[in-house]
Amino acid sequence: MQPTIAVSSANICMNRPVETSIRTKLNQRLEPTHLEVVNESNMHAVPSGSESHFRVLVVSKHFEGMSLLQRHRLVNEILCDELASRVHALSIQAKTPQQWECNPVIEVSPPCMGGSKHDHSMAAKVGTPSK
Amino acid sequence: MNSLIRFSTRVMRPGSILCRQRCLLDGQASAVVTRFLSETPKSSDLSELVKKDKVVVFMKGTPAQPMCGFSNAVVQILRMHGVDKYTSFNVLEDQDLRQGVKNFSNWPTIPQVYFNGEFVGGCDILLQMHQNGDLVDELKKLGIRSALLDVDNNEQKK
């Protein structure tokens, strides 16, 4: 089966640098059979065009034998630069191909409760919107 | 509790304030312990905090008034299992604690959940543990009977 990988055009790379970086790194390190990277910034109290809140669904054989915590730590490690800079929140679903086949559902993040509005560290994270 | 009071009398310098709230069913804090931290908490301090209760949550806001959807999700999941009495720390009130716990846990985001001093994970992990039944088992190891077990029993009796 051909892996399902979103192909980013040069235009998307320029306008969504963080998303592009996330996709590239997850693809390279985890060779996913299915990958979804969702920019959820528009669900939060941040400027339009921000790349601060993401949800990733990664389906990879590399997760076999790993606990949930180990899988999430691995994804955090792969995306450590993004998490240290632009990404304020990262929701992770890390499944093996078998688990994905049994339950091919991408979770939905909870509604924002406005925390970012009161979060002084957000200004540094959000910076200038890409668009 | 005594060690925290002794620490606070030794390090009474202005700076960040850490509030520990023991949250009751009605959301009112029954006891508040304040500590003054002049810099990022030492790992020895945090290793004490994470063991303060069977369930310890570092979150944005409080269980009575979460300030973040992910923190709220953790509160709601715990509440579904009948876990209303636990220790929580509002990292929005203490930026030093906020960064300190991220360093201590080696985990980049908030909320963060600890069971018996052991790091469990964030909102996503707690949700998946709830969905696959593992949370009931983990609470049992803490000596906490999940309220969902009683719901299941009642439904079977019908």
TrEMBL record, chain A:
Interacts with GLRX5. It comes from Erpetoichthys calabaricus (Rope fish). GO terms for cellular component: iron-sulfur cluster assembly complex; mitochondrion. It holds the Pfam family BolA. Acts as a mitochondrial iron-sulfur (Fe-S) cluster assembly factor that facilitates (Fe-S) cluster insertion into a subset of mitochondrial proteins. Probably acts together with the monothiol glutaredoxin GLRX5. May protect cells against oxidative stress. InterPro entries: BolA, BolA-like_sf, BolA/IbaG_stress_morph_reg. The gene is BOLA1. The lineage of its organism: Eukaryota, Metazoa, Chordata, Craniata, Vertebrata. Gene3D superfamilies: BolA-like. This is BolA-like protein 1. Belongs to the BolA/IbaG family.
UniProtKB/TrEMBL annotation, chain B:
Keywords: 2Fe-2S, Iron, Iron-sulfur, Metal-binding, Redox-active center. One of its GO terms (cellular component) is mitochondrial matrix. One of its GO terms (molecular function) is 2 iron, 2 sulfur cluster binding. It comes from the Eukaryota. It comes from Erpetoichthys calabaricus (Rope fish). Coiled coil: none annotated. PANTHER family: GLUTAREDOXIN FAMILY MEMBER, GLUTAREDOXIN-RELATED PROTEIN 5, MITOCHONDRIAL. This is Glutaredoxin-related protein 5, mitochondrial. Residues 55-120 form the Glutaredoxin domain. Pfam families: Glutaredoxin.
